[in-house]
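Moderator note: this is an archived Q&A kept for reference. The question asked for a predicted structure of one protein chain; the sequence and the answer are reproduced below.
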Amino acid sequence: MLSLYLMSTFLFDKIIFGPVWSRRLGESLGINLLPSGKKVCNFNCIYCECGITPSDKEPSGFPSVAEVRDLLTEKLSEMKRNSSYLNSITFAGNGEPTLHPEFDKVVDLVIGIRDQYFPHVSVAVLSNATLIGSERIFKSLLKVDLNILKLDSAIEETLKQINCPRGNHNLDEIINTLKLFRGKLIIQTLFLKGVCNGRYIDNSTE
């Protein structure tokens, strides 16, 4: 039996990064809405490539809407001039993108700039789905092309072992809200089994 172990980690130091090649999303330009070089998340997943979640209760250093606008416009206009290939623009980065205090405004902004320079590419969001109960977040996610939302287990105990959620977390409410997307979403699950912190964890069973 393999034990889960601490993987090498990395954090993004830019707001706009890439494009990078993704098996699912093709040539993808990334948007990091979290502070540069710092993880901000309400999960502390045992497999996270960004490492351990700091205990900051009120994180700061989020990029402004204006910064995202200026940097994305500069990057896409450059790619347009160079006839660069692009499949998607993806909200990812150093944690949970929907924690940005103006996530909804940034989504509208990014869609508008996408339509101006690369109207054929998809806008995607990688999210842990914890904030989809917020009407503001829910409506914003309905506007993007690809909602890639995490659900590592439908069993509360197993989910807590894997994702180590911070604050209030109601699995039943999240699952019920996922249904409201009416299929306009992709469920992302990392299946694993092994030992972590002395506990056996397995989310690959029926």
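Archived answer notes: The radius of gyration is 17 Å.
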